[in-house]
Amino acid sequence: MDSQFQFDWQAAINSIPFLLKGIPYTLMISFGGLLIGFALGILFGLLSINKKWFLKWPATAYIEIFRGTPILVQVLFIFYGLPDLIGGPIDPLTAGIAAIALNSGAYISEVVRGGVQSIDKGQAEAGLSLGLSRTQTFWSIIWPQAFRRMIPPLGNQAIVSIKDTSLFSVIGVGELVRQGQVYIASTFTAFEVYFVVAIMYLAITLSLSLILRLVERRGLASV
């Protein structure tokens, strides 16, 4: 069967100004959530390797729950479920940031745990032998080395979180995909619009990948 479809470049170009309105929301949700998620990741990552069970078990439970459930379910629970518990509505933007923060925090926790445990125990012994306390040894010797090893997986998580924001159109957040849906509803140019949306996501993630590679190279050069 012959297809009469022809890509409408003018329709694609015309959609760009409207779609660009969604980029600030995409970046705000992803990077706002990642910033909080990084703090959660450090906290729960370190707690997960603590020898005290009452610290380790809750951290492990958090990590497994948020790694083991889809982020779409998490944001729907936050947006539609939590209001029943707290007795008030939750803003879509807040729900999106919270979902990215909690989800990325669980994955970053595992990155932190793996990074810290990858450092040879002799490094800690060397710090203690120099008269440093355990806390000083960790933050002055262990953490800087571990963090350099964390940069690639942290970058991967940032890229994943940016792409995850595309799911939040289901709660009405005005990010890229939602803007595309609204535009398509009035123009019926789904192929062209989603093509542009994909290009915009690709531009964001490739730019971030380039920045992370530069950071990684500088980090390795300083070793």
Could you estimate the helical fraction of the residues in percent?
A: over 70%
Gross morphology: elongated
Per DSSP, what share of the residues sits in E-state strands of 2 or more residues? under 5%
- Mean pLDDT, to the nearest integer, reads 92
Question: Describe the biggest sheet?
Answer: none
Class from helix and strand fractions? mainly alpha
Number of strands: 0
> Over all CA atoms, what is the radius of gyration?
22 Å
Question: H/E element string?
Answer: HHHHHHHHH
Low-confidence stretches: none
Distance from N terminus to C terminus (CA atoms, Å) equals 61 Å
Helical segment tally?
9
What does this structure look like?
The longest helix is centred in the last third of the chain and has 32 residues, at 190-221. The protein is 80% helix and 0% strand. The chain is mostly helical. It has helices spanning 9-20, 23-47, 53-68, 71-86, 92-117, 121-129, 134-164, 176-187, 190-221. The N and C termini lie far apart (61 Å). It is found in: Cell inner membrane; Cell membrane. It is a multi-pass membrane protein. The chain crosses the membrane at residues 25-49, 61-82, 193-215.
What order do the helices and strands come in, and which of them pair?
Blueprint: H1 9-20, H2 23-47, H3 53-68, H4 71-86, H5 92-117, H6 121-129, H7 134-164, H8 176-187, H9 190-221
What is the gist of this entry?
The chain is an all-alpha fold and 223 residues long. The chain has nine helices and no strands.
